[in-house]
Amino acid sequence: MRIGVLGAGQLGRMLALAGYPLAKTFVFYDMSGNPSAGLGEVIIDRDGNYLDDFLSRVDRVTYEFEHLPVEVAERLAKEKPVHPCPRALQVCQNREREKTLFGELGIPTPQWKIADSAESLKSAAEALGCPVVAKSNTEGYDGKGQAVLKSPEEAQEAWAAIGHPRLIVEKFVQFKREVSIIAVRAEDGDVAFYPMAENTHHEGILRYSIAPAPGLRKDIQEEAERYIRALLNEMDYVGVLTLELFETEDGLVANEMAPRVHNSGHWTIEGAMTSQFENHIRAVSGHPLGNVEARGLSCMVNIIGEHGEIDRILELPYAHVHLYNKGERPGRKLGHVNILADSYEELVWRVRNCAQFLPGSPEFRSSLTTKG
Amino acid sequence: MRIGVLGAGQLGRMLALAGYPLAKTFVFYDMSGNPSAGLGEVIIDRDGNYLDDFLSRVDRVTYEFEHLPVEVAERLAKEKPVHPCPRALQVCQNREREKTLFGELGIPTPQWKIADSAESLKSAAEALGCPVVAKSNTEGYDGKGQAVLKSPEEAQEAWAAIGHPRLIVEKFVQFKREVSIIAVRAEDGDVAFYPMAENTHHEGILRYSIAPAPGLRKDIQEEAERYIRALLNEMDYVGVLTLELFETEDGLVANEMAPRVHNSGHWTIEGAMTSQFENHIRAVSGHPLGNVEARGLSCMVNIIGEHGEIDRILELPYAHVHLYNKGERPGRKLGHVNILADSYEELVWRVRNCAQFLPGSPEFRSSLTTKG
Predict the structure, then answer these.
(1) Which end of chain A is more exposed for a tag (fewer CB within 10 A), N or C?
(2) Residue A56: CB partners within 8 Å, gap ≥ 6?
(3) Residue B172's pLDDT band (boundaries 50, 70, 90)?
């Protein structure tokens, strides 16, 4: 079976690496002019002239990023199965639509308001009570197009800094930690849930994901499963879906979802019986889902900006290196390291030992390293 | 780093799948006209006209099969590092040379003699005592070019059936089981040994490999490590080397070696901390070696001739499917399934459960299923 992937970055690369052993082949469709998958066929098509050519070379279509024109996905879906469905793109590209869907399905979110001017941003901040987070309603990711307002007086400055005509303004959530759940839904409606991960961000970029999340309570995992199952079923979704959440004193609050394999699921390559990448390919191809159980404890450490001393990391007997073969650039995701351990204590020690070889890695902080 | 691989079959494919995450890229050089790697660039060159082109596209060279002209490897080695060394090819292509080296290094072998006629085959069978195994001295693999003689009178027929001008005749070894050890040696001489596997053949083709081998005694593992270390150091070898052995009442007896990743090491993909494929790429690229420890217990089940009910196998929560994307043909290796378990009892049950979906799979037999 030939799988067409919209986008040609590291996620597509890892989908392909997981898909070849299932006898899939890959054609990437790149609209950026800068593909990095490094595998399979790549069609570079900035102007959308070769979509038919792409279609003729594939049996099924999926995507590795959600910032692609919905019309493209819809046009493709008329000819070949496109998984996940274009509707998932529509929802994920628009935070207002996403939050509205969350609300309809009973998934808690931070209180939010829409702002379409500096004045309405100020009013929203006043109504919600600062601090608030203002985010461009569309096109934002990895912390871009966002600002935190500590008081309504910062509205003018924040509005100018974000530079977007429509913002969503969210009341700041007092959370214990950031977590995510990754689920996969098959064509026949079967659903499987990975154990949740605890995520640590730094400068808006994910740095560490620990899975299963330390001290994860069964009722919290089940709450997350209920939410993501509702989303999967509502959208008649096929493939991997990620839901980012805040864990608070009062339970989970949804932040956002991603209709794809996700950085907070990279630990599954060695840390779960079946990786998120393999499960996405299984689902998209119409195969049964694979076992999502964890194999021991994992922490994913992102390699950001520069590669550091990779050969020192390769010497660590508990580290698995995954490079994306990309050039160094500040803030760029160049790869990740999966650290395995049998206890969380050992995991902390090992992660710190690894991180020392990655310059610019922030100090490892997690619920394991802070008293709470 | 660009790795050139001589040969473009499933072993090259799995080397590439392990090498991409280490930021390697792959160029395959195929002399068969029938490449199946399905990844990377492939140069098809039956007449040896494009060796320079191949060389210009790679930084280092390795190979996935030992039946390639030594002159080709030697010519390449003048320009770029070739690992393992061409001498390993020379030894492995000639059973007499291989057995002689084993003898020089104190590695026990079956008693053997050379035969270059039906008459000398008969004399050899008489001198060694039947049963004996006669094998073409060169070019044989996967049980091809072999015959068992139950009495010297069968010499004429066996000579004709094998149809090779020079045979090696080996006294039949009374063995408890067939085993193999896989080791890897780095450029700096560092060596690591995987736990031995127990192998079951059927019609000359490997069917099952269990690792770590059940009931493996520490002294037997160490004996095998001593033998393979001697080979690695003698040849100043870089990369993965496999040594197939018989386990007898009196210890180990070497059968043959393969200067490459090996079918009896496919279990390492999920069953070891670092796969044989990754370790070969690490060694060939000059990186430190990865951890060779087992992760639980594994059994590799080969998919031979036809694919069977792959979707049923994909449903098994303990099975990992690895397909080579090749067409069905009797006796052809099409893929393998790695079965994981925490106990050997569970492993036997799971392997049998999996094998029922693979038509033509021989009944699972191993030291675990026979009384001894």
Answers:
(1) C
(2) none
(3) very high
Beta bridge partners of B292: none
Shared domain for B313 and B250, answered yes or no, is yes
Contacts of B371 (CB under 8 A, 6+ apart): none
> Could you list the residue range(s) of the whole structural domain that residue A141 is in?
111-171
Structural domain tally of chain B? Answer: 3
* A58 is a domain residue: yes
CATH code at A28?
3.40.50.20
For residues B150 and B230, membership in a common domain is answered with: no
Chain A interface mutation, best of B310, B314, B333, highest count of A Cβ atoms under 10 Å? B314
Q: Please state the residue numbers annotated as binding site of A.
A: 95, 135, 140-146, 170-173, 178, 201, 255-256
SS3 content of chain A, % helix, strand, coil (to 5): 30, 30, 40
Q: Per the domain annotation, does A371 fall within a domain? A: no
Residue A372 has what pLDDT? 44
Chain A residues closer than 8 Å to B293 by CB: 317
> Could you give the ipTM of this predicted complex?
0.95
> What CATH number is given to the structural domain containing B249?
3.30.470.20
Question: What's the mean pLDDT in B111-132?
Answer: 96
Nearest to A38 among B13, B25, B291 (CB): B25
Segment B335-368, tens digit of pLDDT = 999 999 999 999 999 999 999 999 888 888 888 8
User: Which residues of chain B are at the A interface, by a Cβ-Cβ cutoff of 8 Å?
Assistant: 13, 17, 20-23, 25, 38-39, 273, 282, 287-288, 290-291, 293, 295, 311, 314-315, 317-318, 320-325, 335, 340
Environment class of A127 (CB within 10 Å of its CB; exposed 0-12, middle 13-18, buried 19+): middle
CATH number at residue A125: 3.30.1490.20
Q: Based on the domain organization, do B186 and B38 belong to the same domain?
A: no
Looking at the DSSP assignment, which residues form a beta bridge with residue B133?
A: B148, B170
Task: Tell me whether residues A314 and B282 touch, CB distance under 8 A.
Answer: yes
